[in-house]
Amino acid sequence: MNDTRNEKPITIKRLNILGLGSALLIVFLLSLVVLSFGLVMQLSSQGIKEVITDYWGWIVAIILIENIIFWSGIILVYMTSVQLGVKLRVLGLICGWMPIIHLIVLTIIIRITTSEVLFEKSKIKLNRRRAAEQICKTRYPILMVHGVFFRDFKYFNYWGRVPAELEKNGATIYYGNHESAASVTNSAKELAARIREIVETTGCGKVNIIAHSKGGLDVKTAVVQEGIYPYVASITTINTPHHGCEFAEYLLNKAPAGMKEKVAGMYNGALKRVGDKNPDFIAAVTDLTASRCKEIWDYTCRFDYRAAGVYTQSVGSCMKKATSGAFPLNMSYHLVGHFDGPNDGLVGEPSFRWGENYTFLQNKKKRGISHGDMIDLNRQNIPGFDIREFFVQLVADLKRRGM
Q1: 140, 170 contact by CB (below 8 A)
Q2: pLDDT tens for each residue of 138-187
Q3: Closest CA to 136 of 170, 159, 102
Q4: Is 402 left (phi over 0), alpha (psi -120 to 50) or beta?
């Protein structure tokens, strides 16, 4: 991967355009308030007919100018904002014709877009200040391993904006490129082959593995089952269900066989269309159950990672309420909570801990941190938690450890 030290000019241009659009909307909103107040004052001293007669030219000009300012601003922010999202864009279009409500929605849009500009520009400045330090330039490259039901697509990165942020700070990134739905055993074989390929092709010697969700189970099994520990410097698992998911076990046990076959058939068919050669939905889900993960735990934890020279650590997070996560995590949060306690929408907190060090992330703000947030799935700037900077500091720590 390329070492991108400077922010792309297109990103700076996008933020400048977004900033201009936000400024135009602020001007529109403030001028609308001032003009409305002036109109009320004028109407109180003159009748409406007199006002229209005396100022009709000014009224037409003001309406025209206000429309130009508003539409210029809204088009610019709609075209360039990442944080607005589809839902708020649609809400803006729908509520744009509703008096008072449209001003409330406009205020929300302005708040989000101005915050986006300030936040992203502060990140650019931070990366420029520390560019020479290359704080993520680890001794060994980073191998990022995805979780279940996703693939490493070229144009939609499983890890969102995280890899690019790591590369800006000196990291060399590779991906697992394994299938999205397979048993832990089969995924482990794929990952072992991938790791050997990277080491043999590049001569890097070893890799630092960062694995999310089921990917953590796959990696542990690859180390023990496939014997690839000589090529691994460190393993960091992110929201991995090391002890499995009780709710997954409950659903598999209770769901009728016909229903399971139908759901599996739908998923397997869809996964084949996105690149999997032999997807196995049932095998993948079964390996996430508490009973199966206990078997994997007992097997993989008999291995002495430290003696093999592999540093191990784990990270977990939790949502504070259902609305902390996007669909479908907002739907599964309470179900997982019933079986597994505090959770990230899919995995219970007790299941995250593994390795020499454990970090449990809790957002101080009202919003929690979901399973998807930990891979920047929705590319959302979360108040109180910067996922990109978290990973930068995580990799910087690996560098300090000589990895």
Answers
A1: no
A2: 999 999 999 999 999 878 899 999 999 999 999 999 999 999 999 999 99
A3: 170
A4: left
